[in-house]
Specification:
Elements: E1 2-9, E2 13-20, E3 25-32, E4 44-45, H1 48-64, E5 69-77, E6 83-85, E7 95-96, H2 105-115, H3 117-124, H4 133-143, H5 145-150, E8 153-155, H6 157-166, E9 170-172, H7 173-176, E10 183-184, E11 189-190, H8 192-199, E12 206-208, E13 213-216, H9 219-225, E14 232-234, E15 237-238, H10 239-246, E16 254-259, E17 263-269, E18 279-282, E19 289-295, H11 299-309, H12 313-323, E20 331-333, E21 351-353, H13 361-385, E22 392-396, H14 403-413, E23 417-420, H15 426-438, H16 447-450, E24 453-457, H17 464-493
Helix pairs in contact: 2-4, 10-15, 11-13, 12-13, 13-14, 13-17
Length: 511
């Protein structure tokens, strides 16, 4: 049975899928893992987990479908992550994760001062934030000189898997564009002067597009994984972009909304849009550009509340539904791990406003769901203010299994969300990329054939006045509490407050 295998390395788990030639799922496998948080603001992971879990997942999938004929392998992973390895491909330290890791604030400020914000955005497309890979590389160089002295190669989860499977040292353009400011977004190449200045002796990975073949499975990798030697492996990309591929939300005018541990948004267009509040990146495919954003917590916030209350999700969802729109006067800022876009503030912190002795855990859970929805609205309005033409919204990720959460997002944003039949996520998109890369001429599948839209979530227009008012308060609550929470964040680190963010959230009337 001809099929493709896709594996995605996520923040809290690795997921794999075997997909038949018609897009049908033949088998799935998952391995849960944890990130390490050795200090406030630090989020790391041992890269050995990525490969070990890929091997375990591949073997489980193939054992479950004995007649599987794997014709291609797709890889995907969270990002942008910074994994530096030595000349023997031994990691010199744990991988530093994407924007949830906020350790490089000093490097962001220094590099911005050295290069100039206008030049950084002209070359790389985006200002430097906790999402940018360049300052994380600079942090290693400055804070861990022994590790830096050994560093010779740069990887992210997808490119690490491609290397272990094929021996190819490659990185896709989309991932490279988030190693700001080392990538030239208009030239679609590494920016020589800044690579030399900040990446030193690190060898530059060859640049491919996400769906291009990186190489073939080696005999050594075959013996470990059970995948036949010679099987093509695509280059892959960051999970949010692979998720967009999995639901067909990668065409011009599309917005992909990913419900997961964090919330991620990717708007696709042809023009390079620049705004200090969002991330400008190369697209997954040639000829496309993205304006992207992300909340630092979404599913992580609801999981925290679940653990805190001892209730299970069905209980909490039922109580949140009973609480009703507005959560009986509660308003939450979901910045429990700082915030990425649009406020770009690593020292933001969670705020729960309006609490009384009459409030219940259902009210609090409802307010948390509404907080993530308000964060999505903040991002969408910022994207549109920057010129993004958003015509279609497609929802994906584990959170799409909960209808209440999606309904709240539609009610708060006023947007219709399309939900595809399969929302398993980035592993499915990786398998699709492998299928398109290995298909014979005239037999290239389309994602609409693989994964048609099954449901549309429409907003309740009667709730618009309530949520318009709540959004205005949401923006004001951050502005009014910012100085206090910055002081608290500094106390948590045992250090002085960082410089206030260079951007402020847009006011509701600016949308």
């Amino acid at each position: 049975m001809r099929c493709t295998l896709g594996v995605d390395i996520g923040t809290s788990s690795s997921k794999g899928v075997l997909v038949g030639a018609d897009g049908g799922i033949l088998a799935t496998a998952t391995r849960a893992h944890d990130v390490e948080r050795p200090r406030t603001g630090w989020v790391e992971m041992d890269a050995a987990i990525w490969w070990d879990e890929f091997v375990a997942i591949a073997r489980e999938l193939l054992a479950g479908v004995p007649d599987a004929e794997v014709v291609g392998v797709g890889v995907s992973g969270m990002g942008p992550c910074i994994l530096l390895a030595d000349e023997r491909d031994e990691p010199v330290r744990p991988a530093i994760l994407y924007g949830v890791d906020t350790r490089s604030t000093a490097q962001i400020e220094r590099m911005t001062a050295e290069l100039g914000v206008d030049e950084i955005t002209r070359i790389g497309g985006s200002t430097l934030t906790s999402q940018a890979g360049g300052p994380k590389i600079a942090w290693i160089a400055e804070e861990e000189p022994e590790a830096w002295e050994r560093a010779r190669r740069l990887y992210m989860p997808a490119s690490w898997l491609a290397r272990r499977l094929t021996g190819a040292y490659v990185l896709d353009h989309q991932s490279a564009s988030q190693v700001s400011p080392l990538y030239d977004i208009e030239g679609e190449c590494w920016h020589d002067p800044w690579w030399t200045r900040y990446a030193g002796e690190i060898e530059r990975p060859r640049l491919h597009w996400a769906g291009e073949i990186a190489g073939e499975v080696t005999a050594e990798a075959s013996a470990l994984t059970g995948i036949p030697a010679g099987t093509p492996v695509v280059t892959g990309t960051i999970d949010a972009w692979t998720e967009a591929v999995s639901v067909g939300a990668h065409e011009v005018g599309d917005l992909m909304l990913m419900y997961g541990t964090t919330m991620f948004l990717v708007a696709t267009g042809e023009e390079t849009l620049r705004t200090p509040s969002m991330w400008t990146t190369a697209g997954a495919f040639a000829g496309t550009r993205n304006l992207a954003g992300g909340l630092s917590t979404s599913g992580a916030l609801t999981a925290w509340l679940k653990g805190l209350t001892g209730a299970d999700y069905p209980e909490l969802l039922a109580e949140a539904a009973a609480s009703g729109a507005g959560a009986n006067g509660l308003l939450v800022l979901p910045y429990f791990a700082g915030e990425r876009t649009p406020i770009q503030d690593p020292d933001a912190r969670g705020v729960i406003a309006g609490l009384t002795l009459a409030h219940t855990r259902g009210d609090l859970y409802r307010a948390a769901l509404e907080a993530t929805a308000l964060g999505v609205r903040h991002n969408v309005e910022t994207m549109r203010a920057a010129g993004a033409d958003i015509r279609r919204i497609v929802a994906v990720g584990g959170g799409t299994q909960g209808r209440l959460w999606m309904q709240i997002v539609s009610d708060v944003t006023g947007l219709v969300q399309e939900v595809p039949a399969t929302t398993i996520g980035a592993s499915y998109g990786a398998a699709f990329l492998a299928a398109t890369a290995t298909a014979a001429p005239g037999e290239v599948p389309t994602i609409i054939d693989w994964n048609p839209i099954s449901e549309r979530i429409s907003p309740d227009e009667g709730l618009r006045p309530l949520y318009d008012s709540l959004f205005e308060r949401y923006v004001r609550l951050y502005e009014g509490s910012r100085s206090v929470v910055h002081e608290l964040a500094a106390a948590q680190r045992g250090a002085a407050p960082t410089t206030a963010p260079t951007t402020t959230p847009i006011a509701p009337e600016a949308s």
